[in-house]
Amino acid sequence: MKLKNEITIGKYQIGPNHSPFIIAEMSGNHNQSLERALAIVEAAAEAGVHALKLQTYTADTMTLDISEGDFYIEDTNSLWKGNSLYKLYQEAYTPWEWHKSIFDRCHELGLVAFSTPFDESAVDFLESLDVPAYKIASFENTDLPLIRKVAATGKPLIISTGMATVAELDETVRTAREAGCQDIVLLKCTSTYPANPENTNLRTLPHLSQLFDCQIGLSDHTMGTGVAVASIALGATVIEKHFTLSRDDGGVDAAFSMEPEEMKALVIETERAWQALGSISYGPTEKEKPSLKHRRSLYVSQDMKAGEMFTKENVRAIRPGAGLPPKYYEEIMGKKVTRDVKQGTPITWELI
């Protein structure tokens, strides 16, 4: 039975009752080599991720070929300082003619393959490849015509929420639902590259879920696995991380991308975090029941003759747990033993 808000993407069920859905984002880390792109797919599959995601655009669908003013990156803190937006997107884009080869390799290796479209022509192209879902990037989460176009496909929609206000997200989610998309995942995202843990604000996650009655996740630009693992405890069902073969190889996104061994650790540790959530539970679990015998209990600590009184000298609360619980210690003090007993005998009511 499909649970409320449970989503199907490819062969995977996504929701609180399933292990986290891990997406490796290739972005521009192929460094304009199809061979490297396919190697990234293979490394992602080896790391155990569930999906690989591309970005579908061209420099011309993203911006204008202008190298000054607002179209030039002057921010000294930016990884891309000194580039025009147009040249940056020329370097980072994934050639559209590569998509099918990359998606086919994903399918061969059991990975779900989909993409982020950045304009309507990209949606039409991705529909021709029959992608099972779509992702909306943070910088496009207020592009309501694009949201409407993607939502009209009826396929699951994963939306990064970076920079968006509650009012903007409300517009986005309403637009998507009115256009025909009911399966929505909102990803908490900090749109800095890399992002710092202190700016991640994971406590927003359950609030997002409550506000919009949808699944939540994390598009994570921090280094390491800690932030992503923590998000699972707050209800994240989807984790997206940029992925590369090696940060030393360079590339537009390499500096904040995970390497294969890190991604493998992320898959393992997020699943462990999800498993650890369990349910509200008190008392011994089935696995703990054998350990009950190692609790402390009351034992005779010296040989005793029938009729002797239990005292602090001949009774101790020790391990193992075959005797009376320690809470009866004061109650049996001064009582008489019914028969001869040896040191190491568990104290039971029949001895009193």
TrEMBL record:
GO molecular function: N-acylneuraminate-9-phosphate synthase activity
InterPro entries: AFP_Neu5c_C_sf (IPR036732), Aldolase_TIM (IPR013785), PseI-like (IPR051690), PseI/NeuA/B-like_N (IPR013132), Pseudaminic_synth_PseI (IPR020030), SAF (IPR013974), SAF_AFP_Neu5Ac (IPR006190), SAF_PseI/NeuA/NeuB (IPR057736)
UniProt GO BP: carbohydrate biosynthetic process
Domain named AFP-like: residues: 297-352
PROSITE patterns in the cross-refs: AFP_LIKE
Top-level taxon of the source organism: Bacteria
SMART domains xref list: SAF
Pfam (any one): NeuB
CDD domains, sorted: SAF_NeuB_like
Name assigned to this protein: N-acetylneuraminate synthase
Organism listed in the record: Aneurinibacillus migulanus (Bacillus migulanus)
